[in-house]
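wait is this the right file?? whatever heres the structure
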């Protein structure tokens, strides 16, 4: 899906790591939430509350998921899931455009 319709967009940006990671929150009529964002090159650790689906629209990164020993290579057009109440790390290799869906 290349666009979303009938959503509310929160104007205030979510900024992390001194602005190297930013996103905007989309809220759908049924209550689902997604964020659309950009990650600059760097290494970052994130924590989750809900299960997340990270869709990488463009760019390149490596991800180290919970309970895994090896980094996974992820490129534009690929995705990965992160369980709820977990931490994961990313090494962003190039400017990365992403969509994060918060899953039930």
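ok assuming it is, sequence goes like this
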């Amino acid at each position: 899906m290349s666009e979303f319709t009938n959503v509310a967009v929160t104007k205030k940006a979510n900024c992390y790591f001194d602005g190297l990671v930013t996103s905007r929150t989309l809220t759908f009529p049924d209550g689902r939430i997604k964020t659309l964002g950009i990650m600059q090159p760097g290494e970052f650790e994130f924590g989750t509350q809900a299960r997340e689906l990270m869709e990488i629209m463009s760019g390149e990164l490596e991800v180290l998921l919970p309970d895994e020993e090896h980094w996974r290579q992820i490129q534009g057009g690929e995705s990965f899931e992160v369980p709820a109440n977990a931490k994961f790390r990313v090494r962003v290799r190039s400017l990365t455009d992403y969509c994060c869906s918060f899953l039930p």
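The chain has no helices and nine strands. so i think its the right one actually
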